[in-house]
Specification:
It is a single chain. Helix content is 39%, strand content 12%. The radius of gyration is 17 Å and the shape is globular. It has one domain: Thiamin diphosphate (ThDP)-binding fold, Pyr/PP domains (Rossmann fold), CATH 3.40.50. It is built from 8 helices and 7 strands. By secondary structure, it is of the alpha/beta class.
């Protein structure tokens, strides 16, 4: 699939995400917009997954550690055929399995429950270590937010991954520079991330997290360094694709008004042409 084709899918996911947040009256739309291109590249280009066999032992795994952006994952999984697209309309409704955070037991394609930040990467390290012990070739990917990297559990996992030489593990940091209520620079600023991760023994690559060609290249197995886990620092924009949401901390967890919804949808539809 070409970068242009991947971009078209990502735009479709963004439009459906916007609609679902508006209809549900809740959602973490800013971070969902920033992570969409990464999810699209993973599920439609990089990862070996089969929607007809979601528990295939040889599948690649993705842990969405920033679980509050579950809606973007649900829509991506539906687009990939893991469950009917029509089910997205039940997001956050009573008895819906599409909760505000991913649930492995309920939703096909979800690898582990996430929500409390700092939990996903340690779980992913365990998955990658299990594959290494089994001599299996499947890969583990994990997406964290940049604010999430303030959690100490992540750095314990980073040390362990380097110690175990988990070159089957790829950490993707959605580096949109914003967290709930503030800019990263105004709270506990971890930037620049690259020298810190390199000091722990990781191979690190920085990319434009909205450039499909760069994303696909960075996630390809050919870029893996033997004996080193890899981190892709993806520079993104919160609210990507929607002018008044982009790089705006207020849109971490906010629902657009009807006028804002119409404007945002018009902008995304124009970008799709």
């Amino acid at each position: 699939m070409t970068p242009k084709e991947l971009g078209a899918i990502a735009n479709r996911i963004r439009r459906r995400d916007l609609q679902a947040v508006f209809e549900a009256g809740a959602g973490h739309i800013g971070g969902e917009m920033s992570v969409t291109d990464l999810l699209t590249a993973l599920y439609f280009h990089t990862m070996n997954v089969n929607s007809e066999a979601p528990e295939d032992p040889g599948r690649d795994r993705l842990v969405l550690s920033k679980g509050h952006t579950a809606l973007a994952l649900y829509i991506t999984l539906a687009e990939r055929g893991f469950f009917p697209k029509e089910e997205i309309s039940t997001f956050l409704q009573h008895r819906s399995r599409l909760n505000g955070h991913p649930n492995r037991v309920k939703v096909p394609g979800v690898e582990t429950n996430t929500g409390p930040l700092g939990h996903g990467l340690p779980v992913a390290v365990g998955m990658a270590k299990a594959a290494q012990l089994d001599g299996a070739t499947w890969r583990t990917f994990v997406i964290t937010g940049d604010g999430e990297m303030q959690e100490g559990s992540n750095w314990e996992a980073i040390m362990a991954a380097a110690q175990f030489k988990l070159d089957n593990l790829t950490l993707i940091i959605d580096h949109n520079r914003l967290q709930q209520g503030a800019r990263l620079a105004d709270t506990n600023n971890l930037a620049p991330l690259t020298p810190k991760l390199e000091a722990f023994g990781w191979a690190v690559e920085e990319i434009d997290g909205h450039d499909m060609e760069q994303i696909c290249r960075a996630l390809s197995p050919e870029t893996v360094t033997a004996g080193q886990p890899k981190c892709v620092v993806a520079h993104t924009n919160k609210g990507q694709g929607i002018s008044f949401m982009s790089d705006n901390v207020a849109w971490h967890h906010k629902v657009p008004s009807e006028d804002q919804y119409k404007q945002a949808m018009a902008e995304l539809e124009e970008a799709a042409q």
